[in-house]
Amino acid sequence: MLGQDPDGQFLVGQVCSGELLGAHYGHCFGCGGEQPHGLHLEARAQDGVRVTAEFTVKPAHQGAPGLAHGGVLATALDETLGSLSWLLRVIAVTGKLETDFVRPVPVGTVLHLDAEVTAVAGRKIYSSAVGRIGSPDGPVAVRASALFIEVKVDHFIDNGRPEEIRAAMADPDQVRRARAFEVNP
User: Fold this and answer.
1) What is the DSSP letter of 10?
2) Are strands 140-151 and 91-101 parallel, antiparallel or unpaired?
3) How confident is the model over 87-116, as a mean pLDDT?
4) Domain ranges of the chain
5) Are strands 124-133 and 140-151 parallel, antiparallel or unpaired?
6) Which of 50, 125, 130, 185 has the fewest CB atoms within 10 Å, i.e. the most exposed one?
């Protein structure tokens, strides 16, 4: 369960504002560096329970000619929102993602994402995010609200493809990162 102090504030892991959070898995389409057509999102911790990230929409990310595919934009929001679990020191999966597409995002555009936790109730983490075109203060292109559910690392072991689970489990750094989240400070 997520910890809260006596005043009801979330207990946040020891992460400094501006610190790069890193990829949770190298082959993740959202944040993994080993995914050639992935988004390669790099989330950074901000004050409070908030992260920012950005990515450049590439030709491989388009749906309509010259425009980002809505599913890619939803993935960027989902990945940024999912990064919030690093700050809470828990493993969480998407339970619900509601996305509003406000304006088209052209190929070549840098999308600036900003996400924050809005509430926590037991294993449920509620959050919201916004994506802006061109700069952190640019016009809003996409918005999302989400519900994430805290899980244990066994969720992935029990449900993932066996060959990929074996490869991840053979990487001591991957196992250490995953298990570290099961001990909430």
Assistant:
1) B
2) antiparallel
3) 95
4) 44-180
5) antiparallel
6) 185
- CA angle (137, 141, 143) in 5-degree steps: 95
Q: How far apart are the first and last CA of the chain?
A: 11
Specify the residue for token string 């610190």.
19
Task: Return d(Cα 94, Cα 171) in angstroms, integer.
Answer: 25
Give the model confidence (pLDDT) of 105-141 as tens digits.
999 999 999 999 999 999 999 999 999 999 999 999 9
What's the rounded Cα separation, in Å, for the pair 49 and 115?
9
Q: What's the CA gap between 81 and 83, in Å, rounded?
A: 5
Q: Domain 44-180, what fold?
A: Thiol Ester Dehydrase; Chain A (3.10.129)
Could you give the 3-state DSSP secondary structure of residue 126? strand
Strands 91-101 and 50-56: unpaired
User: Chain-centre distance of CA 14, in angstroms?
Assistant: 18
The half-sphere exposure of 49 on its side-chain side, counting CA atoms within 13 A, is 25
Q: Which helix (H) or strand (E) holds 149?
A: strand 140-151
Distance CA 45, CA 78 (A): 16
DSSP string, 39-94: -----EEETTTEEEEEEEPPGGGBSSTTBB-HHHHHHHHHHHHHHHHHHHT-EEEE
